[in-house]
Each structure stands twice: as structure tokens, then as C-alpha cells.
Amino acid sequence: MHDRPQAEAPFAALPYYENPTPAPGPLPARSWWATSDAARHSLNGTWDFRLTPTADGTGTAFLGDDPAATADWDQLAVPGHWVLQGHGNPAYTGVAYLFPVDPPRVSDENPTGDHRRVFDLPETWPADGETVLRFDGVDSAARVWLNGEELGTFQGSRLPHEFAVGHLLRRTGNVLAVRVHQWSAGSYLEDQDMWWLPGIFRDVTLLHRPAGAPTDHFVHADYDHTTGEGVLRVECDVPGRVLVPELGLDLATGEQARVPVQPWSAETPRLYPGELVTAGERIALRVGFRTVRIEDGLLKVNGRRILFRGVNRHDFHPDTGRAVDLATMREDLVLMKRHNINAVRTSHYPPHPALLDLCDELGLWVIDEGDLETHGFCWMPGWAGNPVADERWNPALVDRVQRMVERDKNRPSVVIWSLGNECGRGAGLSTMAAWVRDRDPSRPVHYENDADYPDSDIYSRMYAPHAEVEAIGRRVEPPLADPTLDAHRRSLPFLQIEYAHAMGNGPGGLADYQRLFETYERLQGGFVWEWIDHGLTKHTPDGRRYYGYGGDFGEEVHDGNFVCDGLVLPDRTPTPGLLEYKKVIEPVRITGNAAGGTLTIRNGHDFTGLDHLAFTWVHTVDGRELATGDLAVPPLAPGELVELPLPPAPADAPPGEALWTVHARLARDTAWAPAGHEVAWGQFTAAPRPAPAPARGPLATPRRDGAVLTLGPATFDTRTGRLTTLAGLPLAEGPRLDVFRAPTDNDRGMHWEKDAQISVVWEKHGLHRMRHRVDAVELAADALTVRTRVAPLSLDPALHTVYRWTADAEGALRLTVTVEPTGDWSSCPLPRLGVRLGLPAAFGRATWYGGGPDESYPDTREASRLGRYAATVDALQTHYVRPQENGARSDVRWAELTADDGGGLRIEAGERPFWLTARRWTSEQLDAAEHTVDLTPGDTVWVNLDHGQHGIGSQSCGPAPLPQYHLTAGPAEFGFRFLAIDADRHGG
Ligand code: GAL
């Protein structure tokens, strides 16, 4: 417990909601605990509600007992946001304040929700002691009355506020009234990039405080890695005993004990159940022993450098906004653990407190971040008016950081305090940091947005390109002007507090970052931006569900779908980006050298060995499993590697592409996944894919017959030279060059940096309106050759494209495509290079041998492994909230698209495997769609067979794809072999 900052009341003349200075009324900040023997009573539920457009509300008749006062009110679920329950609308801006900037004043337009709830005390509610009324989160300013008496006011949306209410409570018929203003002085401090969502959105609880119960306690549980001992001391404002039976501990509060323990870490979340026993209350403790230090320029826990494999997480649910229930919180964390994520930054405010309890239990490192962002001041010259640089705001700033630290100080998972996000610079931040260091010297302090880092124990960046990260890793970053500050920054460990912007398709380049993190000890990992797409549930008039984003709710000012930039879709379906991240950060690396007969296993954990994993191997030829077995892996300490002999290859293996795949799976059930869950894998080649057999002759001779050209089993259009049928199978469109893709969010770049967008380059080069001119259709004895010029409307560069068709003696049709660019393509990489064809809608099943099972692109293909896969065309799609290019499968050796009766088309790769994409709409339709429901299946399955794809990058808020992932326009040649599959025949 700590004293509240003393208000200097510089803004005393303003109404309470415009006065940032913390008002008297709420109790001092203190810790939050989930379980004790003191009575508690939830006031969550259905409340009476009325919305008015201005802060005055419409009178105070509702404060009293008269039920008539709310006779014409609506009902509202609490916790909840009124804008998501039919009263007003949510609004999304990334940076912009939704009122004129004139701190601390807001506008007259200030939606105000009056909430009222009548309640009885439970019959068992003790008559003695005190009772506290707690609000865990109210956005953004509240005034509270109980039984007609005002309790006080508060701001600080994502922070708890408590009032002593015992003297006002009745056994029955209590009237709790809460007036909530959407805008307040606090809104200036809450300019996080997210929906503006007013309301009582976290729990409201009555807590009985028996006589002799503590107000607060502080668990200090360090781990001495040199002796293996835990050091425990529990501070408490009333005397009591601290019991930890498993450790045989029975201590007085304030007393310190040293005992051998198993330490807590994100990998081994060892918690010792205990109790704090005082005269008035028994409080359940869950003690995790761990020590966080910055030593030798590294962040260490329990004496070891740790590597964050993190995500930025908001509290979010597509139906209820930031009102999130326990099951959803657990779902988030379980999903993270299953995807090898070991850290969460609670961007950009303290989460629901129960989330941190779950992090303690499941094992995740947490950077707990203050409810503070003043980003909108970046648009004022020199950040004029920025509250963190105006000392009149200091009481509000300190109040915020106190409420976080006091609330969450007993969580072992919290290893770093973050002051807030994107507030520029200012002395207020230093005041906050000083308070934190004094109150809790056991955890480092983080703040990113001041390049000098005067207040941060960590050198932290957002979206830094790979080259900059590498320079920092090598400790050769350009110096700061001030040598003292430079020396300080040089002494700090480094984190990418946000990177790899996961908006839409992507992020690309994750593996390249991870290599750096695993190479340079100073680089202690990063936090992908971000965990979840904040799409809000909407329905079409005919009842189809989709997710809305900025601009879908009538906002005057908004930032579109920039709010949908997560690794999971709004309904928490993992995106391919999450699967890629899982592979990139896997804590075990499995590589092989088939020629040398060995495989190597490296333990990338920070603390644990590998005995929680079971290893198996599979030997496949052309994707068919020939042999499988267990792999004994000797104990490996963190960071160690071992080279093991490969099992003998199966003796009677048929010829073909042979692969070893090694899996590391959980050997036993854990709290977050059952035994058998795959943690890591490696795949390597035993025998490479044989070169495709040359065509077996004699080759068929093309023949012209009126409007039809025949070549072996195929017919072509005489004039265009386009394939029309293959062995009776009608094509909606024969293969033709295609270079267009529906720009991804990363292609579209940062909306505030229009020139950097590759999608604009593509548009300027007319890639969305290419024209195909047929220059010649040539018949030779053994081939049909179609010469074309493919070029954008209005411009002169061109891709001279020649299609050479042959038909071999096995009834297959072969196509070789050669592309020769002319004109200036130097500034225009191609989105894709390949052919597109159209098949009848019935061909809705895909089977392939190649990369899978999920989507991948050149810089997002770590998670793609070679195998045989099957999926419907519908299931090949990734339903990004804003439709865009998606669904490619890499390294395809062959693919079949078939109807329910088994008939269809088989496509085999030429020299080089291809990228397969199939969808029920064209890329142009995909591009035109703004929401998933804009896409409706047509009568064609459109198939792209690509020789190359441009990388994805993360330029929606970060770097473009690295040069090695660019698809530069240059001379190219690629080919395919097509076979019709009869309904009764099976390919493969
Ligand atoms: C960062 C910011 C995040 C989010 C992200 C882009 O600058 O901290 O809150 O806006 O960019 O999605």
C-alpha cells in the first residue's frame, strides 16, 4: 500500500471529468488477489442504463430509491461497453483524439452513460468489518453514488478503483449509481491504438474486509541461482503468518526465509501454494521464486539470459470488446503456449488482473504496461501540450503507474514494468520511473518512445529493420549526441517491443529476425504486433456474420482496418502468421545432414532440458511414409546440441524424393496441451526430387480443324491459342500469364507513407490491367507455340510470353512458358509470375504433394513442410478480415483438382516446383472486396500456378520484404505437365 499522490489541484476549477488530478474518494492502490476466506459479492449482471449526449446527464433522480426514476431506461450487461449494446457506436482511431486537442478539456459532445443497479447483500454477509466496492475497469471517467451518497470520482480506465462503503450499505435495496463519461482528461492519457469503448467493462465487486484483515501485502520471492534457494519475505500491513506447507515454512510476516526451491520461469511455472494468515483473513498465495536482473548488459532471470518469444496482447473479444471473460483469457494463453510463445506485453494497459494469475500458472513472461499513451500530441508542433511534459499532470501519471504496480506486484510472471506507450518524452515519465524503482527495485523499467532512454533499463525499438537490429546486436549502433546517454544506451539489453506487424497476410521476415535474436546475446527477442485482430462482429441484412473495422460504424475520422493486425482472427482462429511464428521460435532446432548420416538437435530452451519431449522420425518417399521410429535424445542442457546418427534408411525404398522428418512432441500432458502436441520439427532431404522425366515420344502433332486446334488429348482456340479442353475436361479459361495479386495489407504499406507502398508501384505500372496480345499461333510437327505480348494498359514495358505446348505419348500435355521482359521494370518487382487457369466449379477438392498444410509465401514459409495434403478449395482460403491475396502453397511437385466423383486435372511441376493457389473468385474480385462477405463463389475455380511470388514483409507498419524475397522481373522459363483424371482413376 502506498500513499496517493498529493493533488496540487492546478485544474481545480474544471469539472471532475476534465480535471486530471486524482480526486479524493477512491482508496489507495493495493494488490489484487483472487482467493481468500473473506466474503465477496459480484455486482456484475444486468443494470439499468440511460445514455445522454453530454456530460451533464439528465438529472440525479436515479440516485435514490424511487424505481420510477429508471422506468424508461434500458438494460445493459455489466461488465460491458454501451456502444456494443445498441447505444451509440464504437469508433476506431490509431492516433487521433476524437475531440479537439485542448488538454485537459474535452468537447461538449461527451456521451454519458448513467448506470444503476439495486442489490441486496447476501444473507450471510457479515455484519461487522468494512466493505469495499471495487471497480476493475471503467472507461473513461466515473462518478459513483451508493444509496444517494456520493462516493467519489475517478479516471484511469484500465485500473482498479475502490471505495469504502460499509457505512452506507443496507441489508436490502442498495442503490448503486454510476455515471460514466466517454471523454475526460484521462482520455488524453489513453490514446492507445484501439477502439474507443466507453463503459463499466470490468468486474464490479463488493469485498468484505473483516476486522484485522490486511489492506495489502507484498510477496518478495527471489531465487538465488548460486545456491538453488528461494528467499521469501511477505510484507503485510497487519501482523500475520506466512505458510508454505510444501516448503515447511511457517513465518511471521516481514520475516525472511531461505529454503531450497524449484524456481519459477515461463518454462517451469512452479508455484508453491501458501497462505497469508492474519487475524481477520486468510489469503491464498501462489509463490513463484525468481529473480530478474540486468547484469553485464543482459536481462537475466535466475542467472540466465532469457529470450522473449513474445506477442503484444490487448484484452479483446469481437462481441464484447475489452470486456473479456476468464475462459477467453485462458484461451488466449493456451493458444500462445501451444504456439511456442513465451511472453506477453500487455499492450498498452494493465490487462484484466486474472490474466496475470493465468500467466503465473501457465508460464509466460509478462511486461506489464501502464495505462498511458499520449500519441495524438505527436501532431502538435514539438508535441506541444503533451501531458508527460507538463508537471501539472504528474499526480495523474504517478497515480496510474501506482495503480498498476500495486495491483500486480505479487505476480511472478511480471518481470518488467512498462511505463506506457508512445508518449514522446517528458519529465513526467522520469517521475513515474523514479516512483517505480523506489517501490519495486526487483523489476526493470521499460519505456520505448524516447530514443535517449533516460528512464528505461532496456533499449527498446519498434519495427526496426533487420539491419538496424543487427547493428544493435553487434553493438555498433550509431551513437547518440550526448555521450552520457549514449553510454547508458550502449549498456542496455535490447528488445523489439513491437515488430513483425501481423496485419493481414504475413508478417514476412520473422525467421530473419529470429536468426539475429539467436546470434547476438544483446538481442533478447521481441513481441510481434499483435496477438488478435480487433474486428467487431457485424451481420449483413440477411444474417451473415463478418467483422467490422474502422469506418464501419459511421466514424467521421478513422484508421480503417489498421485495427486488424493480429496473429489470430477476431474469433481466435490462428492465422498462417501464427503457425509461421510457432515454427520460427520453436525452442528445439532439428537439422540434418543426410549425406553425413547425422542429424543435430539443439536445445533452445532457457532453463529446461528436453525430457518433457518425445522424439520420433518418419522417412517418406514422394510423400509416402515408408518407415517411422522413436529417436532417443540424450539429456541436453539449455543451449547444448547433440549430433546423432540417422536411423538406417529403409532398405527397399522405391526411387523418388526421400525425406527425413523429425518431430518433437510433448511426452506428457501439460496444463496447456495434451501429450503428443508437436512443439518442434525438422525436415531434411535424403534423396532429392528426381528431375522430371523428359517427354516420351512420339509427340503429338497439332492439327487445325476450323475454329479448333487439336494437340493429342487437348483442344485449343485457333485464334488465341488458349487451351479449351483436356481429354474432354472443359476449362473455363486456359492457362495464361498472370502477374497480379490482390495487394495484401503489407503490400499497401503504411497509410501515412503513401510513397513507400509497393501496391502503388504496382498500380502505377498497371499490373492490375494487363492486356494480352496474341502475335502468333504456330503449329510445328511436335508442338504448338503461342507467342504473345503481355503489357499494362497505357504503358510500354511488356512481358513477351511464349507458350510452348506438347503432348507426350502418355496422354499428358506439357507447357513451357518463357517470359522476356522489355522496357523498364527496374523499380517494379512482380507480385507473382505464373499462369492462371479456370476450372469448372465442381473441381472443389485439392490434393498436392508439396509445402503445407498451410499458406506460405517466400518470406513466410518456415512452417511449410513437404508432404501430401488434401483440402477443399474453400478450406485453402485464409479469411483475412479485409480480403487480400492469401492461400498459396509452396514447393508443389504435383497437384490435383478434382470433383466429388474423382475426375479432374492433375498438374505436375517441371524443373522447379510451383506455388499453388485455388479460389472461387478471381484476384480482381478479391481485391475489390472490403469484407469477407463481399466474396461470393462464382462458377469457376481459379487456379494460379506460380513460378515465383514476391515476399510479404511487414510494411503495413515496418520494413518491406528483404531484397532476397523480391520477385524481380527478368527472363524466366518454367513449365508444367497436365493430365486429365478420369472419374474412376486415382492420380498420385
Ligand atoms: C505502434 C503502436 C501500436 C500500434 C502499432 C501499429 O506504434 O505502439 O499501438 O499502433 O504501432 O499497429
Automatic annotation (TrEMBL):
Q: Which SUPFAM superfamilies does this one have? A: (Trans)glycosidases, beta-Galactosidase/glucuronidase domain, Galactose mutarotase-like, Galactose-binding domain-like
- Keyword Cytoplasm listed: no
Task: Recall the GO molecular function terms of this protein's record.
Answer: hydrolase activity
- On whether Ligase is a keyword of this UniProt record, the answer is no
Q: Classify the source by domain of life.
A: Bacteria
Q: What is its EC number?
A: 3.2.1.23
Its keywords, alphabetically, are: Glycosidase, Hydrolase
The family database entries (InterPro entries) matched by this protein are listed as: B-gal_small/dom_5, Bact_Beta-galactosidase, Beta-gal/glucu_dom_sf, Gal_mutarotase_sf_dom, Galactose-bd-like_sf, GH, GH-type_carb-bd, Glyco_hydro_2
Ranges for domain Beta galactosidase small chain/: 710-979
A Pfam short name: Glyco_hydro_2_C
Q: What family does the Swiss-Prot or TrEMBL record give for this protein?
A: Belongs to the glycosyl hydrolase 2 family.
Please give the name of this protein: Beta-galactosidase
Q: Name the source organism.
A: Streptomyces chisholmiae
